[in-house]
Amino acid sequence: MMINSRILSLILVVLSVHGIPAALADSKPNPQVLVTEINPARDVGYHVGDILHRTIILKAPASYKLLDTSLPLKGTEKKYRGQNQGVEVRSVDISEKQQGAFNIYTLKLQYQVFTNNVVVKPSQLPAEYVKFGGEGRVFQVRIPYWSFRISPLAVYGSVKIENDMSQLRGPLLLDDSQQRLALWIALGTLALSLLGLLYILGNRRWLPRMGGEFARAYRDLKKIRKQNLGLETGMTRMHHALNQSSGGSVFSADDIIARKPAFASIRDELNQFFRLSRHVFFDTTAKHQVQGDPEQWLQQFCRHCRDCERGLNK
Amino acid sequence: MSDRLLADWQAHALNLESEINKVVVGQESPVRLITTAIFARGHVLLEGDVGVGKTTLLRAFTRGIGGGYQRIEGTIDLMPNDLVYHTYLGEDGRPHVSPGPLLSEGENLAVFFFNEINRARPQVHSLLLRVMAERTLSAFNKEHQFPHMLVFADRNQVEKEETFEIPSAARDRFMMEIPIVVPSDAEVMESLMFDTRFHNVDALVERVPAGILQFDQLNEFAALVQDKVQASPALRRYALNLWLATKTPGQYGIQISGVDINRLVIAGASPRGMAMMLRAARVNAWLNGRDAVLPEDIHAVFHETVAHRLVFSPVYEMRRTEIARELLSGIVNAISVP
């Protein structure tokens, strides 16, 4: 026993004289590889079938290459204490680019959960080991694991929600994506309708075919009515607008429609206007058939002409 | 009372139109214009190609109006005295003088029909000028009156040989110059060819009932129409602007292709011409059952009452008809109401 102890001591001395410097020379520290993880944002609430995405960025000296053979294999599943973890590698995607004196490897990993439990179960995306080779040596780099929790699909046993009024739980929400979509569509339609309405009611020239003769006449008619300048002034303004719009003096609905077919839809109103004009300017005994306030009617008529001018009346 | 009178006469006038339209087909517009001229007491000059029915139309109206009717043919050797008297040797072998076409009907002369007026010499035009304007004639030391007389004249615009241009002063005496064109309706054209009733003009004119109108009441009634049919201030302004535009069309922005508008018009419409236009417009309003003149009434007679009065620069006279039409259409298009 003593001899054995002496031999062991001798070996240690020899090693200390010759072997240790050599061993120290071989065990030069591995090149530094910078590992950056981009893990899923949420670490709870996963169920069977869920897919987790993990991106690992490895920055290694350019003289060292990542060995593809060391990458995790698709379809493999790590064990923990002899038990399958229930988290399987679904896909592995590696890309490489060079940045100065370094190689940047972007490793995109997808894992799929294949386990379930009746209560919340801790789990993890397993640690992976990848190897680098270069300059006559091979070394491995550990990608750390990432912990998360797998939730049960249903609450185990009967639950009395009254007894579980934790503020931390938050309200249980229904899926409202359909309603949200409908809401956005409705809001979009409303916005377009409002724009259309603005276009119809608008008096200014900010879109094509706006600010035409009748838009200006409409504004003038409103002022004429406000200032009580009388029906004759309004009729004169409207005649002017019709003449300008038609490119010459017009004296009947047929005249206007021959020059501006878009006005055919308001033929009756045009006839009514000329009857009113006849009453106002030429023959006070002539019937004009305008019910109510003629100035108000004239304003409405002008608006209808404006709609025709913009091509809104078909 | 006067309203009923107006309505009764309107019925007569429309009846006359209807009867004339049965005899002279496809000429509704000229028929309406001549009816208007009759009730406005204005003389009418028809212009058109040969054989389009000018004479038939005027003869038909003459029959419808009733009263004395005289006709003379314009020829190059026609002299003014031919209208006033005839001289002949009587059975007694002595020279005799008898009244010519103007005098033979006395005051009952309702229609004096001058066929082919442009074949007559300017001397004849001069005589006619006075007769048309004043409806009087001095002959045999006596002043003869023709209070009911209307002059209907026609001329064809094709033949220029042995014709004399009617001077503008004589043209101005006519209330209307009405163009007569061949109807464009194929059915009417076919009827004019194949319907034998159109082949005998005398028999055709006989179809018009004689004396639909009372010729000796027309003056009085015409005055009533002029009195009853009103023209509003707006319409007066409009008519005034039309008149001014005939004088200086360039100032109203009127353009005619190939014409220097500022040098086109030497003289616009005359005051007499515009007064005649308003008279005709009033009659048109009455014929349409209105008691106020509308712009449409003016438009209905504007071309026919104004075009022949315009005096153009000689360089444009050859294109007179075409230019006058464009000018007056341009004026109507440019002048607005109110």
Brief rundown of the structure:
Chain A is α+β, with helices and mostly antiparallel strands and 314 residues long. Helix content of chain A is 38%, strand content 24%. Chain B has 2 domains: 2-222, P-loop containing nucleotide triphosphate hydrolases (Rossmann fold); 229-334, Orthogonal Bundle (Helicase, Ruva Protein, domain 3), CATH 1.10.8.
Question: What can you tell me about this protein's structure?
Answer:
The complex is a heterodimer of chains A (314) and B (338). With 314 residues, chain A is α+β, with helices and mostly antiparallel strands. Chain A folds into 2 domains: 34-153, Immunoglobulin-like (Sandwich); 201-309, no CATH class. Chain A is 38% helix and 24% strand. Chain A has helices spanning 2-26, 177-201, 213-226, 231-246, 253-259, 267-282, 294-309, and strands at 34-38, 51-61, 65-66, 77-80, 83-99, 102-113, 121-125, 128-134, 137-143, 146-150. A 5-stranded antiparallel sheet of chain A has the order 1-2-6-5-4, with no helix packed on it. In chain A, strand 5 and strand 6 (102-113) form a beta hairpin. The longest helix of chain A has 25 residues, at 2-26. Chain A is elongated, with a radius of gyration of 43 Å. With 338 residues, chain B is α/β, with parallel strands linked by helices. Chain B is built from 15 helices and 11 strands. Chain B has a 5-stranded parallel sheet. A two-stranded antiparallel ribbon of chain B has the order 3-4. Chain B is globular, with a radius of gyration of 21 Å. Chain B folds into 2 domains: 2-222, 3-Layer(aba) Sandwich (Rossmann fold); 229-334, Helicase, Ruva Protein, domain 3, CATH 1.10.8. In chain B, 49% of the residues lie in helices and 17% in strands. In chain B, helix 1 (2-23) runs antiparallel to helix 3, helix 2 packs across helix 12 (271-287) and helix 13 packs antiparallel against helix 15 (320-334). The interface between A and B is medium-sized, with 16 and 19 residues.
